[in-house]
Protein: LacI family transcriptional regulator
Amino acid sequence: MGDNAVVNTRPPTIYDVARSAGVSKSLVSLVLRGSPSVSEARRTAVLEAVERLGYRPSQAAAALAGATTRTIGVVIDDWRNLWFVELLRGLQEGLAPHGLRIAVADHTLNAHVEAHPLDGFLSMRVDGLVIATEPTGAMRVPEGLPVVVAGHREGVVPGAEVVANDDRLGARLATEHLIGLGHRGIGHLTGGGGAARLRAEGFAAAMAAAGLEPRTVAGHGATTEEDGYAAAVRLLDAVPETTAVFAANDTMAMGALAAAGERGLRVPQELSVVGYDDSPIASTHLLRLTTVDSRNAEIGAVAAERLVARIGGGPDTGAAVLLEPELVVRGSTAAPRATG
Amino acid sequence: MGDNAVVNTRPPTIYDVARSAGVSKSLVSLVLRGSPSVSEARRTAVLEAVERLGYRPSQAAAALAGATTRTIGVVIDDWRNLWFVELLRGLQEGLAPHGLRIAVADHTLNAHVEAHPLDGFLSMRVDGLVIATEPTGAMRVPEGLPVVVAGHREGVVPGAEVVANDDRLGARLATEHLIGLGHRGIGHLTGGGGAARLRAEGFAAAMAAAGLEPRTVAGHGATTEEDGYAAAVRLLDAVPETTAVFAANDTMAMGALAAAGERGLRVPQELSVVGYDDSPIASTHLLRLTTVDSRNAEIGAVAAERLVARIGGGPDTGAAVLLEPELVVRGSTAAPRATG
DNA sequence: TTGAAAGCGCTAACAG
DNA sequence: CTGTTAGCGCTTTCAA
Structure:
């Protein structure tokens, strides 16, 4: 009585579609999942009903009934660190063909309010995890869950595979580029974290190999523009004969550029600057920064590959894949001017 | 036989917790959801079992059984546009106290592979939606779903509320700042999209009010650094008497800075530059950009407020909230040099 | 205050 | 090729 006059505000279910198409709900499920063994007539009937009703399968129900969520959780550090943009692209492109989607969670943002972003992902029962953060000891994940740590080598996450670029090598490339240009007074701006440490090591090694003294200075301990600025100011003031600076990342390099400008040092004429990461800011007209491409998109692609393999039942190789970084020469480096 | 020797790799369920704590599963559910009507003894027993087993409630099951997912979907344009970082922060802070979490999806990233990111959110049965993108006609959302369009005024999303800053006013503030400084040759760098158009309108209005001729030039149609660079080059070459530039956003302003540098124009001595958004790059040492604070964090906070109200059963006001932008004066603007 | 029971919407064996 | 039947793990009445 008046039943069909009731406006159902709830989203349509698979039952509604089945009824509307005049088939059973399993048939609807089959069509939606692209089964080949469904007659064309039924298929179109179902598809039309789906369209007509504006039906969207409930992810919750699918996740609960099926064994998998088809989603990979990605934990990132901070939305401001643009290096993960390419990482996400690589991941996305590697995952999508396998019907896997990605969900991103920010570490710092969630830190204030919720527990660890990992908790959310585990509650969500993701099929795999990408940790694009400096791993911490608190990161315990269930055994058997495919996890890859991306961009950081020091994986303290048990059972995780690692995909990263070879920071030591990249730092060497940057330093050798500067040395090859004829620089001798080369300083390094470092920050906190494992990647920064490896880069500092690579810098020191390359300098030592050339018989040069490696000067390394930190800002306030982090790797922000402000840190780069502070470190560069410190370096430039303490060692005026500096003609080149290698920063632990592009953001710090940006700060170094500012410090140089303030001191009237033109880049690259009076000061060469090299960054690291080849993030979007490096290629801007304003910076034209010589940098090291850490190949983040490929890191994402390889991470995706590993995840897909593990999800497909492959073994946990536990191996670390190190991609070779590449030097990208732009306009912020040049040979030093002849010195007295 | 040997049954208990089998290692159960699946995550523990509420049943496991109940058994381990010696209570019924409903009791576990009550404890987890913080019901006051549970004896202290049982509560601790349950909590201990949870801890012991490493239990995490299944989001899928909770969503399916309950009526709500307690998550808000946020659709953004592009991870590179940093303006949404503050938006997210404001949202997060406004939502968290109400037990609501946020899920972020990128429009452009998903565009390649999946359907619309909205589809994902609707499949997920989010409790609300924040659209931080230029809304398009394709954005059909179920009636009754709380939706707020953030940062864009032209909401073609039916039934959505709008929270944004007053772009026209902001542009006027920027332009009047320049005029007040004594500039007369002021150009505007514009891009595509509704916000850019409103900013261009505000610029034109302020210029007209001062009896000045508004020159507006676009780059390649978008609002990237490259567009800002191209537009600035065009402007500076066509109108050499230009002493100030107002860009549609900080990124474009960065491009303008590059164009100025290339032409040997020092900022702010020979060219003043104003951006818009007060994004993280504006406050760097390198840019020290005078800009307009579009108050993104507050936009997020207000959006959160509206969402919470609607979810709590409040009415869809359908209203548009316009926040007043504020001028942030930094080092990229100054009075023009005395001209012949 | 606690337990039992009925689904939520879907997938995945099964039978036909 | 198509329909039937069990659950997936949780929330939520409803009794006890």
